[in-house]
Each structure stands twice: as C-alpha cells, then as structure tokens.
Write a structure and sequence with these properties.
This protein is mainly α. 49% of the residues lie in helices and 12% in strands. The mean pLDDT is 85.
C-alpha cells in the first residue's frame, strides 16, 4: 500500500499522532484514546501500519499467557526518510498541537488570535525568492524574544509547494 493510502485514514492518523507524542504504546493504550471505534478495527489498523513498516514492535510483554506488543514509529523505514514523510510528520505534529489546544478547555479563538490561512500566490522565481527572504527577515526580527509572563508562545507554520490544479 502506498504512503498516501496508508495515511489517508482518520484512525491510522490518530494512531500515528499518538505515537508521535508518546514515543511508544501498546495496542490497549492506543485503543483507549480512540472513541467510537471497535477494538478489532483499531487492531486491524495497527496491523496494517505494522505490515507496511510504519510501526515496529520495540518490546514484548508477557501478560497472563499472552504477548502484549509495544509499538513505536518505525523511523528506520525508508518511507520515514523522504521529504514527503517529513512534511506528513510536521502536519501530524500540527494536528496534535491543535488537538491539545481545543481539548484542554473552551477556547476563544478570536482573543487567542488563532487563524489558519491558505493563500495561492502566483510568483516567478525571483519574486518568490524575494517573498521568502522578506518572510525570513520578518521572523528573524522576532526570534530574539524569550519566554516571559506577558508573552504567549505561538507556532507559526509556513508551507510552500507548487500549486497543482487537479480540476484543469
């Protein structure tokens, strides 16, 4: 199964998210955080991820006559060493950040100044290089600030990729 098909499933994304933030987990630990899905279904998705090399068994625990596997992301898998997978991992981390933000307590998105934007710019190479340099210079002006009582940490993400119009 190709990487896109493997990761384009919400249950498998949740499994990957959990292992991204927890390093290792048993199937039971993973099942406990995935609501409204049967144990068998979660086991099946873990098995698919393991068979395709995205998860690996890092430990086996003997529990009352059965073996309990402890899983982690298989970072030695060649799929984890691609630029595409680096982007997927970054997006998973962003999803975890947003999940943590919304789960903690009721949020006021407006006062927290949370926003997400998707903009398509049509630029030639020199224009894009200029845009990127301006963005880099802007960020450098603010990197100097450290954590303080009156400062809120913010995750700023910028993803640049060529626009592919699949409708034309």
């Amino acid at each position: 199964m190709n990487l896109e098909k493997l990761l384009m499933n919400p249950i498998r994304i949740m499994i990957m998210q959990y292992l991204t933030t927890h390093e290792t987990a048993t199937a039971s630990e993973i099942i406990s955080i995935i609501d409204n899905v049967s144990r068998a279904t979660v086991y099946n998705h873990i098995k698919i991820l393991e068979e395709n090399g995205l998860l690996c068994v890092v430990k086996e625990n003997q529990i009352r006559g059965t073996i309990e596997k402890v899983f982690s992301l298989n970072k030695s898998n060649k799929n984890f060493n691609t630029e595409y997978t680096s982007i997927i991992n970054c997006l998973i981390y962003l999803m975890v950040d947003f999940q943590n933000y919304f789960e903690d307590k009721p949020r006021d998105i407006k006062s927290d100044m949370l926003f997400v934007d998707r903009t398509i710019l049509f630029l030639d190479k020199p224009e894009f290089e200029n845009f990127f340099q301006e963005y880099t210079d802007l960020c450098k002006r603010y990197f100097k600030f450290s954590s303080a009582e009156n400062r809120t940490g913010r995750t700023i993400s910028l993803i640049s990729s060529p626009f592919v119009d699949n409708e034309n």
